[in-house]
Amino acid sequence: MSHIVYSLNDNIEHLYSHNLYITPGQKRNPKNERIACLLKKVIREELTDRQKACVEMLYYEQKTIDEIAQELGIRPTTVYKHLRLARKTLRHCAEYFIRDP
After folding, report:
1. pTM here?
2. Which CATH number fits domain 13-97: 2.60.120.260, 3.40.50.2000, 3.30.365.10, 1.10.10.10?
3. How large is the average pLDDT for residues 15-33?
4. What mean pLDDT value characterizes the chain?
């Protein structure tokens, strides 16, 4: 049995916001829907509060690293650390749950 493992690299913005680019009447891709659902669930249930805050601010609110650091009262290097660990968690979860049907 073969399966495809999707790589979640540092450029995962399109996975978070792919629904924003679907126009009314356009056919949705079930694989992208499954990926988006998984990402939302992992962000909600598997990330720490600080990782979740950094991911939400960066990808959903389109804030810069410096803005995130200032708002959370931490250094920019700490923001990068939280984002790196969050991406690692996302990749780990994706290995188990994203399969080609």
Report:
1. 0.66
2. 1.10.10.10
3. 56
4. 76
